[in-house]
Amino acid sequence: MKIKTKLVGAIVVVLSLTAIIITTFTAKRTNSNLNSVYTEVVERDLALVNRILEQTYPGDFNEKNGQLYKGDTLIDGNTEFVDSIKKATDYSVTIFHHDTRVSTNLLNESGNRALGTTATPEVCDAVLKNGNTYTAMINLLGHNTRAYYMPLKNANNEIIGM
């Protein structure tokens, strides 16, 4: 084989590897930027949702007789708030009492609200145990979606839901 052919082959390999490295780096950076933008938008929207929730149902989250309340309003089974958020934002919304869905606009495969289902152990550890927000791509009732969870605290700053 001629030197010229070997040199051209080596250059093609180097250029190909460089292109792969640049593409991989760009894709990772783009994904990171999109995740940052997503988190920023969702946190802003959640702040708005929390203000609306506080205006609609004033008072702290609390537990009475094993059920979740916001002020004096029973949240367990209450769909008015989550449905209004879905209508305004097209967001799927769930309120958990500890790890269990007690209010949601998510429908299961039968077309019923997905009440009584539980969050994954990863979500529970991050949010309920450690008090952090949690965002990830998840499979939710058979659909891949981006999810954002945040702790719900009572007046004593104890986490009682998300």
Strand residue content: 15-25%
Overall structural class, as computed from helix and strand content, comes to alpha+beta
Q: What is the terminal separation in angstroms?
A: 68 Å
Count, helices: 3
Radius of gyration: 23 Å
Topology (SSEs and partners):
Blueprint: H1 3-56, E1 61-64, E2 67-70, E3 73-74, H2 80-89, E4 94-97, E5 100-104, H3 121-129, E6 134-140, E7 143-149, E8 152-153, E9 159-161
Antiparallel strand pairs: 1-2, 2-3, 4-5, 6-7, 8-9
Describe what this molecule looks like in 3D:
The structure is a single chain. This protein has 162 residues and is α+β, with helices and mostly antiparallel strands. The protein has 3 helices and 9 strands; from the N terminus they run H-E-E-E-H-E-E-H-E-E-E-E. It has helices spanning 3-56, 80-89, 121-129, and strands at residues 61-64, 67-70, 73-74, 94-97, 100-104, 134-140, 143-149, 152-153, 159-161. The protein has a 3-stranded antiparallel beta sheet, with no helix packed on it. Strands 4-5 form a two-stranded antiparallel ribbon. The model has no long low-confidence stretch (mean pLDDT 85).
